[in-house]
Amino acid sequence: MMEKRKQPPGDLAIWIFICAELSVFAAFFAAYAFTRAKHLELFNRYQQTLNTDYALINTLALITSSYFVVRAVAAIREGSQRSCARWLLAAIAMGALFLVVKSMEYQHHFSHGVTLSTNTFYMFYISLTFFHFMHVIMGMVILAAVALKAHAGGYTAERHAGVETGASYWHMVDLVWIILFPLVYVMR
Amino acid sequence: MSETFTKSMARNIFYGGSVFFFLLFLALTFASHQDFPSRDNHEALTETVAKGKRIWETHDCIGCHTLLGEGAYFAPELGNVYERFGNSTEAIKAFIKSRPVDGVPGRRSMPQFNLSDEELEQVAQFLKYASGIKTANNWPPNIKG
Amino acid sequence: MKYKSQSVAKLYFVAAIALFVGQILFGLVMGLQYVIGDFLFPEIPFNAARMVHTNLLIVWLLFGFMGSAYYLVPEESERELVAPWLAKLMFWIFLIAGAATVAGYLLVPYAKLAELTMDDLLPTMGREFLEQPTVTKLGIVVVALSFLFSIGMTILKGRKTVVTLVLLIGLTGLAVFFLFAFYNPENLVLDKYYWWWVVHLWVEGVWELILGAILAFILIKTTGVDREVIEKWLYVIIAMTLITGLIGTGHHYYWIGTPDFWQWWGSIFSAMEPIPFFMMTIFAFNMVNRRRRNHPNKAAVLWALGTAVMAFLGAGVWGFLHTLAPVNYYTHGTQITAAHGHMAFYGAYVMIVLAMISYAMPMMRGRKAANSPSSQVVEMWSFWLMTVSMVFITLFLTGAGILQTYLQRYSDQPLDFMTVQDKISLFYWLREIAGVIFLIGLVLYVVSFFVGTDDPEAVEKIEVDAETA
Amino acid sequence: MPLTPRTEQGKAFIRPCTIIYLLLMSLTLLTWALGRFNAQIGLPAMTLSMSVLGIAILKGHLIGDFFMGLRRVRGPWRWVVTLWLLLPASLITIAFMQAGQ
């Protein structure tokens, strides 16, 4: 039986932050669903202008990057700093892929004159995805900072709370997208 | 594994979070600016209106009234007063002009500002311009303001 | 008092209390004008009384913040203040400019004041809370910069603590966002949009950092709890404040010609704004419960705990009450806003300044740590009188606001503004009575400085731990 | 606490997290396929929506348990992600049921 601990991995401070972020996203998701119920036809019509293939690539990219982060944590637990940094770098690359694909999607919509004020569906679509988009950037910055420190030998097999903290934040970014993807792109 | 809740992480979250949400605020401000031209009634923003805004400001009208719901709550909302007065700047001017110098016994009363005809026209035009601003859901809820 | 230069705070605190009395007197005048419309008309019209009421509030709170900074920064930095003469000079400049401005509001018509101060050169007057003549605003900038200089240099040259760092960030933000007071475009929507960058980003942003820093300082001093613990929580709380409060500005962007998306962003983020206040309440009580000493200044601890509770009620609960866009659609610009404004300002900012005064004043008047018990009893009476009457002011205004919202906005036959005002005048009378009790509390507060000055000071009660005894 | 990459004999194992990862990828493809080809599959909209929502909750739970490592935590933090998933998911379900009527 594994020894269980009282606290989730990483610094407790990041978990307070994660809880706050998750509450905001939960509120946004619920707002989306209830507003959709009031404007069913509008939401169903404009949902079809979204590209599910792009969203698929992005979901796969985020899950893969999350997996890489898990490997990075495993690596540092085994004391391998360089391998930890490499896994983190790979995770950041997958994050970058997400940003590129998402930007292509935005480019498509914006070139058709879509803005936050076009209609309620696009208001939610842009708000939710852009808010998440910024979280991806933020997460990449955090991972980069952790990777640099790992590369410089700042963590050990015993002391690596920083890696777990960054990892927890990144998984949160993934987690949000896991709900966002079916809700905005698929459910109708 | 011992408890970790470090001051340095709390600090990082403070700095990181503040910068993050300030940037987001700037992004939403940018998006707002894209929308202003379609709602802010700038077509009606003539020199007369601009002067009217100065009259509005230099008589501290906001110290009693609300304008689009902001200000003091002592006197009626003026964001839609142009409509409430039957889409008439003349009615607004007549009202301002006719305020008794010594007030109304026991009642609230607007001061007599002794505005010239030109100034009256300017402030009335300003209020007409304000009523043309497209507020969300056509706020206020009804003509009473 | 460890450092001589801390004593400049005394000037600031005395002025703050004097202006506070003035603010309340004018509040009572306005309260009476709500029910007896021609009271003091046309000598002091409502808008003039309101300018005095709100501007005195802002100015005395600024005096309070500055005094608090001058008191706590030397102690935290473990060195004398840089240029205490500058602090004294700026005090007099600020006081004279403030007094002249208020005199201007009362003695000449506002339009005349605008003309005399050449407002046309750079028009900034006539917007709510920013009514000061442009030259006064420039004076505020000069005072703020000098203040930042002496505080900042002291902090940088001395020991750097989280308390002083957060305070410095808050004060810098205060100065920076005030600059938007000089932006007054002709376009009303833009004007309103950036007006909030002063007002909201002050009271729901950087001021909360100042509040947090002062509260943390008082708790460190009075509870003896490990600084590390308090500083950690300070960071978490102010992080939550800015995370929710920055986008929370959106709750002012619902109905002023700004795009519809703000209704969602504003509602969601400002619904989270009570969280940091709730954390602050938990934090303050937690620290006091874990105290390592019983500070003899019971009054100061009471004020500090009061701040945490009343800020949560006033800013958190009463803010949440009308912050969601569908609710705010009906309540925007009614007495509900007034109710929230009163309790939030009292709970968050008035009380923290009084807490700091309560903590620091005894030392500056030559005591070791606290006033005599008899003085503290009077002060605690004033605490309860002011706080309870403020709760009632808020409740009566809330009652007035609910009726107003219903009669004027929601019912099938909406009534005229003035008709509604007449119907709800009972609530205004009750509010005025509560206001008089508040004034009595305030008078008692002033009296407490002169009670028992010759008595020996209160001493720390040593708790005997049952287990070790 | 290594994620058991090798046994004592040095024989390579597939890490549990890798299995979870592959599972997450497949579930994602399933969600996508349900959305993309429902015209051919012909599920009623409500069934489709609830299925992909259910899949999402499962995915989120796996991420919380295995990636975030919550399955090795006891006390309230153990359930933070799962509870979070259930909260919006139940609200979304209510909203979709409202809309479906």
* Helix-strand pattern of chain B: HHEEHHH
Integer average pLDDT of chain D: 89
> Helix/strand-derived class of chain B?
mainly alpha
The percentage of residues in β strands of chain D lies in under 5%
CA distance, first residue to last residue of chain D? 51 Å
Mean pLDDT over the residues of chain B: 96
* Quaternary class: heterotetramer
Shape of chain D: flat
Cα radius of gyration of chain B in angstroms: 22 Å
Number of strands of chain B: 2
CATH class type of the largest domain in chain B: Mainly Alpha
Largest interface, C-beta closer than 8 angstroms, per-chain residues: B-C, 75 and 78 residues
CATH architectural arrangement of the largest domain in chain B: Orthogonal Bundle
Describe the global form of chain B.
Answer: elongated
Described by strand count, sense and barrel closure, the largest sheet of chain D is: none
Largest sheet report of chain B: 2 strands, antiparallel
Distance between the termini of chain B: 62 Å
Describe, in plain words, how this protein is organized in 3D.
The complex is a heterotetramer of chains A (about 190), B (about 140), C (about 475) and D (about 100). Chain A has about 190 residues and is mainly α. Helices cover about 80% and strands about 0% of the residues of chain A. Chain A has six helices and no strands. In chain A, helix 1 runs antiparallel to helix 5, helix 3 packs antiparallel against helix 4 and helix 5 packs antiparallel against helix 6. In chain A, about 55% of the residues are buried. In chain C, helix 2 runs antiparallel to helix 3, helix 7 runs parallel beside helix 13 and helix 11 packs antiparallel against helix 13. Chain C has a domain of about 160 residues. With about 475 residues, chain C is mainly alpha-helical. The two termini of chain C are about 35 Å apart. Chain D has one domain.
Which key terms come to mind for this protein?
heterotetramer, C: 469 residues, mainly alpha, D: 101 residues, 4 helices, 68% helix, flat
Question: How do you describe this structure in short?
Answer:
The complex is a heterotetramer of chains A (188), B (145), C (469) and D (101). Chain C is mainly alpha-helical.
